[in-house]
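Our consortium's second objective concerns turning raw sequence data into structural hypotheses that experimental partners can test. To show how far this objective has progressed, the report includes one record in full. It was chosen at random from the queue rather than selected for favorable results. The single chain below, 341 residues long, was entered without modification.
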Amino acid sequence: MINTVYRLIAPRLIDVAYKEIEVDKDSLIIRPLYLSICKADQRYYQGMRSQAVLREKLPMAMIHECVAQVIYDKSGRFSVGDTVIPIPNIPVEDDGYTAENYLRSSRFMSSGYDGFLQDYIVMPADRIVPAPEGVSLKVLSFTELISVSVHAITRFERFAAGSRIESIGVWGDGNLGFITALLLHYLYPEVKLRVFGTVYEKLSYFTFADEVYHVDDIGNVKVDHGFECVGGAGSRPAINQIIDCINPEGRISIMGVSENFVDINTRMMLEKGLCMFGSSRSGLEDFKRTVEILKKYPEIVQYYENLVGDVVEVKKISDIHKAFELDIKRNFGKTVLKWEK
């Protein structure tokens, strides 16, 4: 069986590649239903990574956020027609200490390895989780992004065990900030949730938060712990504002990605005895917890439906370009591809 793969070969240039599908006894074939564009995809599409990185990673099929349907299962774990969520992180070892998403040997689809922009996708059966029933497929298309927030919160729970958790601040009024803040609101309903951002219009979406602040007007507000969901050029001011606002011995979760080094106020970090930790990507257990959260809190799904922006039916390569160009103009929400090829 020949598969069609849609690979980015240079910024804004997608070409078709054909390869033979090989399925072993522990694998299955799935077909995308809906896919979602991530900022990492955009950085590749627009050529915003360094030339060295682009030379190393391309050509490559993009996109690592997807909900799909089982076409063939040689492992016997699923039935044909099942709706499933594939996990893009593929570990090849277990050292007994390091989480699968931090092992340097793990393969991450759409980062040097073909992602989900394919007619058919061959996946190991243990990299698949069943999709929860009754949840919008458009929302499930960005389960991976939600699982990244779940992963960061799970690590926070471990690092903050035994500490005071009366207030949490989330810096970032974009998709990651919205997803993370909403999860914290439902997982910690008794904790005061404060959200900090730069755009009043986007801050208005955080109706579930106890308090919202423009970063230029926060007064002397304090938080016990902080989540940085900004990234890029905004990482430096966001992290340093968290250091200023956080109470002594607080935990700071770094989630935003920056292409450049970030200067931080280490003197105040030392004086306050702060703990800063980074979180990236997610693994099987995070996907499982994410699915359970979506089942338990249907209100979360309703909120996340507000993140669905443009939905582009993809029947030809030009439709993929259309989706990415629409996504470039979007400053809030997710661009979703309905796979019709």
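The partners drew two points from this record. The domain at 147-278 is CATH 3.40.50.720 (Rossmann fold). The chain has two domains: 2-142+307-339, 147-278. Both points have been shared with the crystallography group to help prioritize constructs.
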